[in-house]
Fold this protein.
Amino acid sequence: MRTKIWAALLCLALVGVLAGGALAKGYPNKPIKFIINFSAGGTTDVAARLMAAKATETLKQALVCMNRPGAGGTLGVSEVARAKPNGYLIGTCNMPAVAIIPLIREVPYKPYKDLVQVCAVMPYEYALMVRGDAPWKTWEDFAAYVKKNPGKVTYGSVGTGTTNHLITARIGKEMGLDWKHVPFQGGVKETAALLGGHVDMINNTTASVASSIRAGKIRVLLVTSEDRLSLCPEVPTMKEKGFKFSQISYMSIVAPGGTPQAVLDKLSAAFKLATADKGVLEACAKLDLHPKFMPGKQYQALLQQLSAEWGKLLPELGVKAKK
């Protein structure tokens, strides 16, 4: 009896492999829906559309870009997780949507079961920013103001549980700053709130506000990424200011869990070419974006490592983990 059961299971597995191989052989034979999990005009949106255009050439089928912002990127990611695992609906994903936010609250997907990482395509680059006409010229000026005005200063992020939120909270804890967090649905709304005077400071990607920085409408006070940025080379990094940590996050491409490996391989190869394409790199460089490819399995291992690290830090930041 047991032998028959194992034989049946083996047959089912073989059928799955053959079906996956057949799907991949003709894949793709129709347009692919490409869910961008942040708002139009933001860093993720701009980079994703540039890469999607190049991937379209490689795959010979259109990647139809659709924005699904909200909830720190998890709304768009959940749409991918619910899709059929056939390669015809994929999307972008920010690191916290998989490695951090599921530790804090319930999300409608299991990060390592309902999703598979196709590849990572770009590290995000972040900084703390204020309005160009703000009275604070340096990070030290701003920090001193926060200390003198406890509970008065507000800072914006692209959502609770994102690195934008948590790194800023971590800075505040280390320096003893009493400030208030205000989450937004994406970098565009966050930036609009800063320019409109609704928050005092934001943690955001510099690429999404490059034109405002160049025009003097936004002033960068501190780079929270590991290296100085070409857009504002005079601004120091956190580590240069004595902090022992920095802000690390990536944009990746995800597919529904169970997508055949052969399909994932085709998608990965297409985005690998996109991240190395001269035209894509030149267009991204103008916005201070720097695509960099990482294979999906390697990136998934990094995600699990970062999740473990943040899991230990959340209680220290006063962020309650879900029960």
